[in-house]
């Protein structure tokens, strides 16, 4: 289908994004916002890191990217674990707390696309890669459905 869509790479990338988002959103459409936001953050931060020579500003921008992406990953993967551990630690002292968890659903492939977008940003920070100016190409790179849920984590080279 990819080769039949059009001869222009822009339309092919748009096709890949649409198909990938349909694939990813089929399980739970709400997580589309998460992958889109994560992609947008790293695309924009990559552009700003590349444009600035100020080391402090570059490091701050990288820190923002790390904080946003690893923050999402930590929340979805570990929030319930830490809540349960906190409640269980009180039982060691004879204090029973009412167990409540947030019932957070882990988005499919969150680790893969988080580390993939972060590697892109880190490579730009290290001046090993120039950022793409093509948002469609970047979003297609991040959301490419055959490798989105099972990897491998691709480098943006």
Automatic annotation (TrEMBL):
Keyword annotations: Membrane, Transmembrane, Transmembrane helix
Membrane-spanning parts = 9-27, 33-50, 62-83, 103-122, 134-153
Q: Does the keyword Repeat apply?
A: no
Keyword Transmembrane helix included in the entry's annotation: yes
Q: Which InterPro entries match?
A: MB_O-acyltransferase
The molecule here is called: MBOAT family protein
The organism encoding this protein is Bizionia gelidisalsuginis
């Amino acid at each position: 289908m990819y080769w039949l869509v059009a001869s222009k790479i822009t339309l092919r990338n748009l096709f890949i994004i649409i198909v990938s988002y349909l694939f990813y959103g089929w399980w739970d459409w709400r997580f589309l916002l998460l992958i889109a936001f994560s992609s947008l953050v790293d695309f924009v931060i990559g552009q700003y890191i590349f444009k600035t020579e100020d080391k402090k500003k570059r490091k701050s921008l990288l820190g923002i990217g790390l904080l946003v992406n690893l923050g999402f990953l930590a929340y979805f993967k570990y929030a319930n674990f830490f809540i349960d551990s906190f409640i269980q630690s009180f039982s060691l002292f004879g204090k029973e707390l009412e167990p409540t968890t947030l019932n957070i659903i882990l988005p499919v492939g969150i680790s893969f696309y988080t580390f993939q977008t972060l590697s892109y940003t880190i490579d730009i920070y290290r001046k090993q890669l120039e950022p793409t100016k093509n948002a469609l190409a970047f979003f297609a790179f991040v959301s490419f459905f055959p490798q989105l849920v099972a990897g491998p984590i691709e480098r943006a080279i």
